[in-house]
Write a structure and sequence with these properties.
Radius of gyration: 22 Å
CATH class: Alpha Beta
Number of strands: 10
Number of helices: 12
Strand order of the largest sheet: 2-3-6-7-8-9-10
Helix content: 25-40%
Order of helices and strands: HEEEEHEHEHHEHEHHEHEHHH
Strand content: 5-15%
Number of domains: 1
Length: about 375
């Protein structure tokens, strides 16, 4: 089976195409386009914990069967706890909630892809199509917030997988979580790429009025074609900006993440993105450099080679120049921003543009003093 398309050969020349061919073979064979239509990843490599790796190939006997397309499947997950704790110095929160495992948005660069390996599944197409929902999340959250000694701090939602991915329309787990947080008057910070968040403006606006809610929408590109290629089932850039405007108009403090910044692909849009989000009423912004941990690296490379073969070598060269010559450096303090001249240039461009617009002049801090340990029992607390 020839896994190198003609466009790759034309862009690289025969020698370079052979090099790229080896790269793709090492990562796993590409899945037929019709089977993965509407998905981000082009392959489904085995997870790093699996004892064996399986590959589909043509043995010359024409025995390959037509396999069905990857369809979204949802399984029920019953975790022991719903609040996840972390002590990372690179993020501004120490607790988070993930209503779902896996993400249908299919963002090719998603750093959460390797987590599917813990479930015995692939970080590739499985991550986008074999999802896990936690329907008891709201009940579990209510119990955990009611435990004696619980101390309220902002809960971050959307830091791993998107709480407003398409399956949320049916499952409504995120809305139930917000209802519990509102009852307990507990602060929450949300990050999403979905305009579906506008469905919950009623709850978010009430919480924001008390200083309990903040929302960031990630805007990776204003180029609709690039966004659809990178993030096939996420809301379009236009819809995300509309969501920011709707939230701001409803009194919800908003911001935006230019994340990830991919050198040689979307880094030229930094200033335009910030101009656009500022116009919606957003007053905070941040950025994260592309991260390629573990299985994300080969999956991203295959996607880049398939969609932008003429930029393949240049993009990887820039990435490695900011990661100490590697695809990724997981060291705290470096993994979010990188290092070196090009990383410095990106940081300064972002800072200058943000300062020009007046972004980040005052970051809204959410309140924790209103927290009610047992929702609906304020009167009982007097006795």
């Amino acid at each position: 089976m020839n896994i190198m398309v003609q466009a790759d050969k034309a862009a690289f020349g025969q020698g370079r195409a052979e090099h790229a061919n080896v790269l793709v073979e090492e990562a796993g064979l590409r899945i037929d386009h019709e089977r993965r239509r509407g998905r981000g990843a082009g392959m489904n490599p085995s997870g790093r914990f699996e004892p064996e790796s399986r590959h589909v190939f043509d043995d010359g006997w024409e025995t390959i069967e037509d396999l069905p397309p990857f369809k979204t499947e949802v399984q029920i997950e019953k975790p022991r706890t719903i609040i996840t704790r972390n002590d990372s110095p690179d993020v501004g929160f120490d607790r988070s909630i993930n209503p779902y495992r896996g993400c249908e948005h299919g963002c090719i660069y998603c750093f959460a892809r390797p987590t599917h390996s813990y479930m015995g599944m692939s970080p590739g197409l499985d991550f986008e199509s074999k999802l896990f929902a936690k329907p008891d999340a709201a009940k579990m959250l209510d119990r955990e917030l009611s435990k004696p000694g619980y101390s309220a701090k902002t809960i971050a939602i959307g830091t791993n997988t998107d709480p407003y991915q398409p399956i949320e329309k049916k499952w409504r787990i995120m809305r139930e979580i917000l209802q519990v947080l509102e009852e307990h008057q507990h602060p929450v910070g949300i990050v999403t790429k979905s305009a579906l968040i506008m469905r919950d403006i009623d709850i978010l606006s009430r919480m924001a009025e008390k200083g309990l809610a903040k929302v960031f929408l990630s805007v990776t590109s204003l180029d609709g074609k690039l966004a659809r290629t990178m993030e096939p089932r996420a809301s379009t850039p236009t819809r995300r900006l509309q969501a920011l405007r709707a939230l701001s108009d409803a009194g919800v403090p908003t911001g935006s993440l230019v994340a990830p910044i991919i050198p040689g692909l979307n880094d030229h849009e930094i200033e335009r993105i910030l101009d656009s989000v500022y116009a919606t009423g957003a007053r905070e912004a941040g950025y994260v450099l592309l991260r390629l941990p573990l299985e994300v690296s080969p999956i991203f490379k295959e996607w880049l080679l398939r969609n932008y073969p003429d930029r393949y070598r240049h993009v990887l060269s820039l990435i490695r120049s900011m990661r100490g010559g590697k695809d990724y450096d997981a060291e705290w303090g470096k993994r979010m921003r990188g290092e070196g001249p090009y990383a410095w240039q990106i940081g300064r461009r972002f800072e200058i543009a943000a300062k020009r617009l007046g972004l980040n002049l005052a970051k809204r801090r959410l309140r924790t003093d209103l927290f009610v340990p047992t929702a609906g029992s304020e009167q009982l607390s007097l006795f």
